[in-house]
Specification:
The chain is built from 13 helices and no strands. By secondary structure, it is mainly alpha-helical. The two termini are 16 Å apart.
């Protein structure tokens, strides 16, 4: 069991790193002239085509019945709703506040999982979630202000993503991560395709812009989503969500390396707290051989 949980933690760490890199890739994509709708549509379209090709070439089993419908809703409603809420919130609140509100989702996943899925609410789990939240506050830094509508939309993004994770954790008890992620991507691509057709988006210009979009699709979508599902399948929803708070740490480190942005002392402290919470949670569970192996996670 300890080996299985360690493998799950490594999957989630890889997922967080891949998701964390998306902000850097997006900066280059937007710099080439692309807008949000174009980037989101191309992100899921390229990912869906790639994953469908892998599914067909390897003759893997596709989800069916109720699970297929749930996964399609996760992509077409969950991912689209979360993205719409998040990017709309940026019009009414600072980026720091919106990001902070989004990272309420580990706390919400833990709380909602205990309320509706009867997952254990241990002192260790609560402590790790709160420590990760404090670290996130420090990592995101200053510029935390916004209008009530922006706050509401930011909380909505966190709540939608929390429900997405918890619903996925139930479905993934009987589905393979690769197949499940493919259905989610196809559904999201279909909905964003309709939005693109209705809004006439601005497409990326030049090789650098298209390369950035390709990296978002492959690294920050295919790799990120499949490894998150695989890690959640081994860890459960609450612990996977907590471990995924590594994402902002990866983002500010990559921003310093590739964009020349300064790493502030509060970000270093926040990153250290997040890393400490992640290591504490992973090691404590790995050593607790008597702890429950899985909570139906995705």
């Amino acid at each position: 069991m300890a080996t299985e949980r360690l493998g799950g933690a490594l999957y989630v760490a890889l997922s967080a790193s891949a998701f964390g890199a998306m902000a850097i890739f997006a900066r280059y994509a937007y710099g080439s002239g692309a807008d949000v709708v174009a980037v989101l549509f191309l992100r899921f379209l390229i990912a869906a085509l790639l994953m469908t090709g892998i599914m067909v070439a390897t003759r893997r089993r596709w989800p069916s019945g109720r699970n297929l419908a749930i996964l399609a809703a996760m992509g077409g409603i969950g991912y689209v709703g979360q993205s719409f809420s998040f990017f709309s919130a940026l019009n009414y609140a600072s980026a720091g506040l919106v990001a902070l509100l989004l990272y309420l989702y580990p706390f919400l996943v833990t709380l909602l999982g205990a309320m509706f899925l009867r997952q254990r609410l241990t002192v260790l789990r609560v402590g790790a979630v709160l420590a990760a939240l404090v670290g996130t506050v420090l990592t995101i830094g200053d510029g935390i202000n916004g209008e009530p509508l922006g706050i509401a939309l930011g909380v909505a993004a966190a709540l939608i993503y929390s429900v997405y994770i918890l619903v996925g954790s139930r479905v993934m008890a009987s589905e393979a991560p690769l197949a499940a992620a493919t259905v989610v991507m196809i559904a999201a691509a279909a909905v964003f395709g309709l939005l693109a057709a209705a809004t006439a988006p601005a497409w990326p210009q030049g090789r650098a812009g298209w390369a950035a979009v390709g990296l978002i699709a492959v690294v920050s979508t295919v790799v990120a989503m499949v490894t998150f599902f695989a890690g959640m399948q081994k860890l459960g929803a609450a612990d996977a969500a907590t471990l995924s708070t590594l994402e902002p740490v990866v983002t500010f480190v990559l921003a310093a390396i590739f964009l020349g942005e300064e790493i502030l002392p509060n970000q270093m402290l926040g990153g250290a707290i997040i890393l400490g919470a992640v290591i504490w949670l992973a090691r404590a569970h790995a050593s607790a051989v008597a702890a429950p192996a899985r909570t139906g996670g995705a």
